Amino acid sequence: MANTPYPQSYYAASANAVPPRPVLQGEVETDVCVIGAGYTGLSSALFLLENGFRVTVLEAAKVGFGASGRNGGQIVNSYSRDIDVIERSVGPQQAQLLGHMAFEGGRIIRERVAKYQIQCDLKDGGVFAALNSKHMGHLESQKRLWERYGHTQLELLDEHRIREVVACENYVGGLLDMSGGHIHPLNLALGEAAAVESLGGSIYEQSAAVRIERGANPVVHTAQGKVRAKFIIVAGNAYLGNLVPELAAKSMPCGTQVITTALLGDELASTLLPQDFCVEDCNYLLDYYRLTSDKRLIFGGGVVYGARDPANIEAIIRPKMLKAFPQLKDVKIDYAWTGNFLLTLSRLPQVGRIGDNLYYSQGCSGHGVTYTHLAGKVLAEALRGQAERFDAFADLPHYPFPGGQLLRTPFAALGAWYYGLRDKLGF
Fold first, then answer.
1. pTM of the prediction?
2. Are the C-beta atoms of 84 and 72 separated by less than 8 Å?
3. Nearest to 71, CA basis, from 209, 238, 311
4. pLDDT digits over 27-38, tens only?
5. Where do the FAD dependent oxidoreductase domain residues begin and end (predicted)?
């Protein structure tokens, strides 16, 4: 059987050592079969194990192989569409539930890191950076909105104050969220996987689910084995393929690109980001960056619709980095990679149940680090019969892309071109 390694990335190169995990062979019986060992699957597994369920996790490649091990490593609160959009489209009770959950994912990450002593370079503090007065007005509204839901660790930054936080001349201000922050994302996933195993859960790698036998007693088939379960949680997100056709029709994998510089040294690194906060700008097609624990700059941005791998990632992202930090013009890039996230038409996550026992969560639309940890808790609650928070997500409309799978990529790319133009013109 083919062994799928991690893509060459800074995260894979600096990952904590972990023992090899077995390939599923033969038949296993469990309470819950989780498909996918990324954040959604691992978070679900941990909450279920803590509540007495037997759990088996199937991973097509390696723990954290997909978006969970390749993302920008930023802990960003709320959803890809903020709570004000949700308030306008759902009833008041549902909006209240979803609004209060918008800040829970970051708390769950910190609880997991503390409880299971996960070594993942956790740092507090994230900045939303405004490139113009319209962005600044949006951040002022966002602060009021979030404070209405009890989220108070926020500080508006004026033009002088943001210079103390990031050495970039392009920003007119920003919003600092001290409950945001950043982590080594692959090491977080590996630590959560070790926690799953410490509680008696099983994780099989190189064991892709190839078919789900649905019904009262569902069975998940892999190339060399099968898992009999009472419940299934589908947590493959952008790497699920067509295993569950109903889910593929309502989402689209998209690629994002990330580069990592050579070692900068303490002095240069601390001039770029003196407080060691992570930063993302307020553009629709946003750039995001942060320092690593060994003082490199990780810089990401750009979207490739349909998730094709671009030929030269550095050529796409390096100019964006130099626009923010021209002082890095002579710095070498050591790593460049791409990874997929799953986009929905509404840019809100899709959560639900198919039949009586197949549960799913997908479509974080670029806001996955915190949301996936919340999703695991919400899915675990639903399997325990506490479905109020699950239902708040499940009742959000799941729109198919216009024109189906054939037209979803050009449709989304056209939308991105429009918003990219708006970003350039400062609308």
1. 0.93
2. no
3. 238
4. 999 999 999 999
5. 31-381
Helices (H) and strands (E) counted in the chain, each on its own, are 14, 19
Q: Flag whether 217 is in a domain.
A: yes
CA distances from 172 to 144, 158, 226, 291, 323 (A): 19, 7, 56, 22, 15
Decide if 297 is inside a domain: yes
pLDDT digits (tens, 9 = 90+) for 173-203: 999 999 999 999 999 999 999 999 999 999 9
User: Has residue 68 been placed in a domain?
Assistant: yes
What three-state secondary structure class fits 41? helix
Predicted pLDDT at 413: 52
Q: Are 47 and 195 a contacting pair, CB within 8 Å?
A: no
Q: Assess if residue 269 is contained within a domain.
A: yes
Share of the chain above pLDDT 70, in %: 92
Question: Among 182, 50, 165, which Cα is nearest to 116's?
Answer: 50
How many domains does one find in the chain? Answer: 1
Helix 39-50 vs helix 368-383: crossing angle, to nearest 10:
40
* Domain CATH code at residue 366: 3.50.50.60
Please give the residue range of the domain that contains residue 284: 10-410
Using CA atoms, how far apart are residues 380 and 50, in angstroms rounded to an integer?
10
Chain-centre distance for alpha carbon 151: 21
Do the beta carbons of residue 340 and residue 73 sit within 8 Å?
A: no
What is the residue type of 242?
A: N
Closest CA to 176 of 77, 62, 85: 77
Helix/strand/coil for 94? helix
Separation of alpha carbons 185 and 283, rounded Å: 23
Q: How many CB atoms lie within 10 A of CB 1?
A: 11
Q: What does the DSSP assignment read for 339-392?
A: EEEEE-TTSS-EEEEETTTEEEEE--TT-HHHHHHHHHHHHHHHHTT--HHHHH
pLDDT for 321-376, tens place per residue? 999 999 999 999 999 999 888 887 777 888 999 999 999 999 877 788 999 999 99
